[in-house]
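Fold this sequence, please.
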Amino acid sequence: MGKSAKVFKNSLARVSAIRVSKPPSKISSKEVVDSASTVPLIQKLTSTDAKERVLAVSTIAKLLDDSNLRKIFLKEKLIQIIIDRSLSDGSDEVVKESYGILRNLAIEEGHDVCVFLWRKDILSAISITLEKIKVKLDEFANSSNSKNGSTTEKRLIFDLLENIISLLTSLGASSDDIMSSIFSRIPDLAVFELTLLNSKIISENVKVAAAENLYILSEDSHEFIEQIQTSGISLGGDLSTPIEMYINGIQYNISEISFTASIDILDVCKSIVKNIKSVSVEQNLKIIDPNESIESLTADDSTYSEAKNSIIAVQLGLELLTAIAESVVTNHSKKGKRKAQAGNNAKEEEEEVEVDAENDDAEPELNEDEDLDDAMVDYDNEGGVQTSVILEDPVLHYLLTSGLDIVVPLLEFSDLQPRALQALNNMAWTFNSVCPTAPEWLSKAEKLWVAVATILKSLPDDKVDGRTGSIGVLWAIANTFKGQVPFEVSDIRWFISHFQKSSGSRDLLNYRVGTVGLLGVIAAVQGRIDVTKEISIFLITQILALPNNEPQIVIEALNAIYDIFADKEFDYDDEVFVKENLLKRLQGSLLPVRQMAKKIDRRKDLELRTKADEVALNLQRFISYKIKEQKHK
């Protein structure tokens, strides 16, 4: 309903600003360049003097932190020059910095840069470089002489390896085709990275990069997961919090995809909560905050890396709790079985909801004794599992008793707030769906309503994730209490005002849908006729705005109207539905609603088309029901 879907690949954006190992570059006045100076700097990448090449590539790496300069460098074909010359440079320092540049460009510029790199056969260069690195790592591991492999040389190799692995992560996350190419060109990647995690000589930054790569690439790949499962490598020893969190993510991914895995998600949940608790969030955020004073840190200071990795671990923990909460009820059977069932259901629904164009004007008959709930089509009814059975689910119980408690305090940190709200959104909908009357949930839901409502009203309009997560939590809680939440007419006007401000923003569509859903639940409470009236007028306005309104908004508004006015005995039915002439308005919307449904291409969005057909059919039935209802008054 209002749950956040699992979209791990896109979630790399969550850490794009802090994913690098070193503190943000502080560009000195001597290094500031304009578009005219970038060309000579790029030309120095091909200088015969190795020191000039090192200085040029290091300077460019710093300047790329600036988005405007980044665009200039890209226009000057920086990537092509790096691929053609710098990646095969005789200086290991130049090679390291060059992979760092590509890694950062892939993070900052995303899909387009990743596809460009792939088409330029970056994987060949990576494969060759990785083989050279493996030789060096064997030398480090087998050397009994401490002088063999100096600290400087090891640091350079480790930095290079970290840059390459992080680049592979961004490449794989950007496209399924690129991910398949990675598996084909570097078939032993999973085993290699697992070996890195078990190594005693590898730096923490490399291990974190390897763990992240394993997590991201295992999200939706049977092939990669099979490599992990058949590697024969078991991770143990003293692992850091970030690595443990990534391992939690890998375990979750395996449990979602593999048919043979026997992973206890309860243990995964406990590990997630334990690791979040171990992080001093406030202290670590200060260290990585560019607005905080960090003069004491140098570019090589491990303090920054540790703080950055710890915050990423918390973000990842929230991401995993979000996914687990969304799947805890439906994930009891194997994924293959669910997919097969979903395919059958979709096919059946498609056959059932097709509206014959020749009968568009026909009103379906409603039996005299037929209840509206029996007459209405409901494709969202999943049958469900008995509440008593679900309450015995240890994972659900743990989320309710411990998961909520670890997430709520993180709402006070703006860097973590969007992720925390998404986790709470999914938890709230799960609890509302399977244990809405559980005392533990009811007591926590009351406090959560106050906290989240306060946050929502303080958020700027452009905070998309925060606003969407907040409205989802409030909507779920309102459902739990069947609309009996603290709400005044002034609150309604605030929500409607911000709904209108967000109109036209595709990014805020889910926020607007959530607003309609929340207000619809609140309107269906008796004893507050003024509240019901104001919300109902708002809802009918959204329906009558067709064809100039999003189908998602109209669908939610119609479903709300059906619920609010399902019974003429409600104290507000006569005062609102009858006196505001809503029946006539709905009759006038019948054709536009049908046209709205027909315009949705079922091949592109079957779920939305199914919902649209549903509300169109239900609108006919609702109108017929209300006409007969008024005749019997």
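Residues 386-481 form one domain. The mean pLDDT is 85.
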